[in-house]
Q: What sequence folds into this?
């Protein structure tokens, strides 16, 4: 039996017991009348209130009819008019029972409110679980610069002309030779040499890094603040901080910035060091922490 | 008969249509009274001869609900209720 059915049953029970505690001449009538009127009540809380009210009505009716009354009179229509009842010296509820019923009723009302609407609204009011996502900066690899292909030098095409064989009798002029030697020659580009290639993989939060949920500032959570804080950290080759992290870019919320710094500090020892050619090295880099209240 | 505000509300519910028979649930809706207040008043007025009551004549199985107790103003009750409202004035219940 769930709570709602229990409330209905409890209301009926209240009415039956209240009616049976009424003066005997009224007992059956009140029970039938109240149970019929209970059917007309809409809503379980209204039924519960109705049942509790009937208990109070019994108490009042009983008290009113305890004292001897004037003998019955008949109305002009001939319907029997209730005027006198035998004394009924027992009250339906003692003070303790009344207090007990009151407490039970209040608890029932509270449980009903929590199970129907209030709890739902409370759950809505509680901030949703936080889903934090680390946004890594794009990894930059020191790739060797791509060399532009050198244009192929193709000498102008000259039609081959047979060299004339001219006998020289003139002695060579040393000045002329020097003049030719002094002519500026076209600078020759040194052959391109590829720079030393270093595969640098930037570090970031690594295995065992603390969860952002634990560092989402409660004030920011209550105010529904979300944002991304960029934090600069310097990490050794073991993934440990070598200096206190600093804020590289604010999230727009001082609370979130503070939470980001605390998270970055707490993550010491759990950073993934930057690697160069596969070897961990000391480095400083910026990573971003996203504080988000994501819907389920 | 002590005329409390709740009693006046019960009477007002009946005076809307004096020939109409109302159940306790009907009066409760019209007067906005709690059951703990309403039924003692109904019985009080009935014992004083202002109301008469009878069981509704229906077949509960076909109607799908139990029979109700119906109350109606007696002629003397109507006269006295009208006098009460005349002496108090309508502003009392506003």
A:
């Amino acid at each position: 039996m769930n709570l709602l059915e229990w409330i209905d049953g409890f209301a009926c029970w209240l009415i039956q017991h209240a009616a049976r505690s009424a003066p005997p001449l009224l007992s059956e009538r009140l029970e039938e009348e109240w149970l019929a009127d209970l059917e007309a009540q809409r809503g379980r809380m209204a039924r519960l209130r109705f049942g509790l009210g009937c208990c109070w009505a019994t108490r009042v009716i009983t008290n009113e009819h305890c004292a001897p009354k004037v003998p019955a009179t008949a109305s002009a229509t001939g319907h029997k008019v209730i005027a006198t009842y035998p004394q009924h010296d027992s009250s339906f509820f003692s003070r303790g029972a009344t207090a007990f019923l009151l407490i039970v009723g209040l608890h029932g009302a509270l449980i009903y409110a929590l199970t129907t609407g209030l709890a739902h609204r409370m759950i809505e009011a509680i901030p949703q679980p936080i889903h934090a996502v680390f946004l890594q900066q794009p990894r930059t690899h020191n790739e060797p610069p791509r060399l532009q292909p050198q244009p192929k030098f193709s000498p102008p095409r000259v039609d081959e002309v047979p060299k004339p064989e001219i006998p020289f009798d003139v002695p060579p002029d040393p000045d002329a030779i020097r003049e030719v030697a002094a002519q500026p020659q076209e600078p020759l580009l040194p052959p391109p040499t590829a720079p030393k290639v270093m595969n640098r993989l930037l570090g970031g939060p690594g295995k065992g890094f603390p969860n952002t949920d634990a560092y989402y500032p409660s004030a920011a959570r209550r105010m529904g603040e979300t944002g991304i804080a960029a934090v600069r950290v310097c990490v050794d080759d073991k993934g440990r901080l070598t200096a206190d992290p600093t804020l590289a870019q604010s999230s727009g919320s001082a609370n979130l910035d503070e939470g980001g710094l605390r998270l970055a500090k707490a993550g010491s020892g759990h950073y993934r060091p930057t690697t160069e050619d596969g070897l961990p090295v000391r480095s400083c880099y910026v990573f971003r922490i996203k504080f988000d209240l994501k819907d389920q | 008969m002590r005329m409390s505000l709740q009693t006046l509300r019960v009477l007002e519910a009946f005076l809307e249509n004096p020939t109409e028979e109302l159940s306790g649930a009907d009066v409760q809706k019209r007067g906005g009274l709690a059951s703990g207040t309403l039924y003692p008043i109904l019985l009080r007025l009935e014992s004083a001869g202002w109301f008469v009551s009878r069981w509704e004549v229906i077949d509960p199985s076909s109607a799908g609900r139990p029979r109700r107790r119906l109350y109606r103003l007696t002629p003397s009750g109507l006269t006295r209720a009208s006098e009460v409202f005349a002496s108090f004035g309508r502003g009392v219940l506003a």
Remarks:
- Chain A has seven helices and nine strands.
- Chain A has two domains: 3-125, 133-138+199-291.
- The radius of gyration of chain A is 48 Å.
